[in-house]
Design a protein that fits this description.
By secondary structure, the protein is α+β, with helices and mostly antiparallel strands. The protein has a 9-stranded mixed beta sheet with strand order 6-7-8-5-4-1-2-3-9, sandwiched between helices. Strand 7 and strand 8 form a beta hairpin. It is globular and about 45 Å long. It has 6 helices and 9 strands, in the order H-E-E-E-H-E-H-E-E-E-E-H-H-H-E. The longest helix is centred in the middle third of the chain and has 14 residues. Helix content is about 25%, strand content about 25%.
Length: about 230
């Protein structure tokens, strides 16, 4: 999984330069379906150690439709970008790329714990990562970053559109009855309807999809467990 040379950009930039990069890359986002059969879906999550000085990225690959974990990868690197709302991809993606490089199986779709185009400049971590790697990707967030919406109906799989002005930027998805909804948005190479369908394919009885749950479990595991799981192929 390599970044195209014409999309490559440095990560050690100022916030103003980061916003300029987002404005450039947002034009590359594809919001229509361009993907083949999906046999493997990867959950991506990021945590931090040592008061934010170390970025820790976890990637867990699940097979479909059985949702069995087939591979795990964990990467750590010094954090090189400050915490700036709206620019989290510059803080997180370098470590995510390190974790993805460890994989033996290339997943067919990435489900990132964060936003896709439901972002002020339409380039959250899922969209940014998907564009750089030219891979189908989806933002799966626990909370709203931007936009307004009505409450979705209280039934499994129901959703309401998330709007920013006149633009639909995502779906507010009820994954289980009586649970708080999650925020799904296109990352790259998928339509919103396909993104919602894909998330529901990896949801079981919990509010969060299994891709998110497994990646969060690895990213949040105690240090000794993370060391054992640094790269595991099942």
């Amino acid at each position: 999984m390599r970044i195209s040379s014409d999309l490559f950009h440095p990560w050690d930039v100022s916030p103003a330069e980061a916003r300029e990069i987002q404005e450039r890359l947002r034009r590359c986002v594809e919001t229509q379906d361009r993907l083949g059969p999906v046999e493997y879906a990867a959950g991506v999550d990021v945590g931090f150690e040592e008061d934010g000085k170390v970025t820790r990225a976890a990637v867990v690959v699940l097979s479909l439709p059985d949702l069995e974990v087939v591979e795990r990868a964990l990467a750590r690197r010094p954090t090189s970008f400050p915490y700036v709302p709206g620019l989290l991809s510059f803080r997180e993606i370098p470590a995510i790329l390190d974790a993805l490089e460890q994989l033996h199986r290339k997943p067919d779709v990435l489900l990132c714990d964060g936003q896709g185009i439901a972002h002020p400049r339409r380039l959250g971590v899922a969209a940014h990562l998907g564009v750089l790697l030219d891979m189908p990707s989806i933002g799966v967030a626990k909370s709203r970053l931007v936009g307004t919406h009505d409450d979705p109906p209280n039934r499994r799989g129901a959703w309401a559109p998330l709007h920013d002005g006149e633009e639909c930027i995502g779906a507010v998805l009820r994954t289980r009855v009586d649970a708080k909804p999650i925020y799904v948005s296109v990352g790259h190479r998928l339509s919103l309807h396909t993104s919602v369908d894909m998330v529901m394919r990896v949801v079981t009885r919990y509010r969060l999809p299994e891709t998110t749950r497994e990646a969060d479990r690895l990213a949040s595991a105690p240090a000794h467990a993370r060391n054992r799981a640094r790269r595991t192929v099942c």
